[in-house]
What we know:
Blueprint: H1 2-7, H2 25-49, H3 64-72, H4 78-87, E1 91-95, E2 104-106, E3 112-114, H5 124-131, H6 134-148, E4 150-156, E5 164-168, E6 173-176, E7 188-192, E8 203-208, E9 212-218, E10 224-226, E11 231-232, E12 240-244, E13 246-247, E14 253-254, H7 261-280, E15 285-289, E16 334-338, H8 344-360, H9 365-369, H10 378-384, H11 386-413, H12 417-420, E17 426-429, H13 437-451, H14 455-459, H15 467-486, H16 494-501, E18 524-526, E19 529-531
Antiparallel strand pairs: 1-17, 2-3, 4-5, 4-12, 6-7, 7-8, 8-9, 9-10, 9-11, 13-14, 15-16, 18-19
Amino acid sequence: MHEFVESQPDLPYAQPEQTPGTLDLELVKEMRQTLRKDNQRFTLFRDYLDGKQLAPYAPRDAQEQIKDMQKRSITNLMPLLVNLPSQVLFVDGYRRGQAGTFGMTVEADGSSRPAGQSDDKYSSEYQCWQRNGMDARQAVIYRAALTYGHSFVHVNNLDPEDIRIEILPTRHTIAFYEDPVNDRRPAVVLTLKSQPKTESVPGLAVVWDATHRYELDYKLDGTFTQRGEAVAHGLSGCPVVRYHCYMDDEGNTAGVIEPAIASQDRVNQAVFSTNITSDFGAFKVRTAAGLQPGFKMDPKTGEPLLDPVTNLPIPEPIVVSQAKMLVSDNPETKFGQLDETPLAGYLLAEEQAMKNMAALSQFPAHAMMGSTVANISAEALSALEAQWWRFVEALQHQFGESTEELNRLVAEALHDEVGAHSYGGEVRWRDLTAKAFSAVMDGLGKMVQMLGVPRKGAWAMVPGVTAGDLQDWDRLHEEEQEEAAFGLTSGPQAASQRQAARPYEPPTPSFGPAKQGALSLPRIEVGGVSVGGR
């Protein structure tokens, strides 16, 4: 047990005894050194993602043709490992939980409502998500986490009227934790906004801790100097949320690139062997024994030209093509042919290397190899992709938990106490699986009829439906209910009829005490339904 403890690596823990509002520049220097070590790995991951990979093995004295073929044999499959998961990960809604302390907000007209509740169907944090364009930008978070193992998102509340969700560059950001496995948010975060150019033009670094935001000058010699006074962000912790792909019990994170590097090198070597064989041995070679070639002649003297090294006549090259026939005056000349090297074995090795890479990465083989799947049932296709969707579901659990923490942080920045303490909130992921629409609708219909599931509860399970669609459907459903209740017909005059038939609603909400002097109307009958009155 003692040997195990002593062999553990030194983890970059934060220093909790630091006085709030003060910055330890030695800690910042240590964070910069840790980030520099991490960047050695991150640069390798980025190179493999961009196709800058280890060249296949070839002899050192290989000619230029072989060296050029090494470059052409790089079959970069790494973008598939990052792009495919990020394309099926799309947050399309956020449902708040019931946990939290419900405070009351007083409106200008004197009415009151729960804090953070608006007339819109969306919560305040999800409105901020939409306002920051995260529908398109969220893929950047997932791609970075899949590539490097983790990514960071910062909630910027310097302008209270414009809360911003900022994605921090992973290769220039480092976070220290008091407990890297169990803490929901880091203790201190350093990000390098810009690199130093000259001694007089330093770079910019930003540090966040549990209470403040610091700006620092980052100089060429690697030292930091605080720029101005610290700014209190007023949040309950460091305003940075981490997304991670894989994490072990020591807090180390990993993405999909690092474990696939060896498999990628094997694919490149197999492709290189196939290219070499197809270029040099995939065609028949004609031979001739005893064929007497001609010799190069001096045009002035008419004598054969001699090789300066061997002092022998220089033979003329024998031109062989489909349009020429080899003939010889020597009756002992023997013509022959060498068969081409079969490529089937090399192609099988290349295919097997790709299959191994797909299996180790939990990817469907047909997606990795680009092969089509024909004459296969939907159940069989689902079985082929079952391992892949288990991997995607695991990513949704991990990224979803980080997104929920991000929403709580945004709600806190918006002074929304309900959303800040909504630990029962859930992220809604858009269903992008390949399913037959008719089969899904049939299953949803049976679920409503046979299991008693509310119809509106099944709306979110319709493939391709968005949060905006659900909101429109809910509004249209309310209008249909009103039309049915008041016996109205749908058409151009339906809106005016509903407005005329609706009972008068004073500004006092149903959950607050009635205002004094509120108007009281008599109860009347409209379409057989009793409305109005108090």
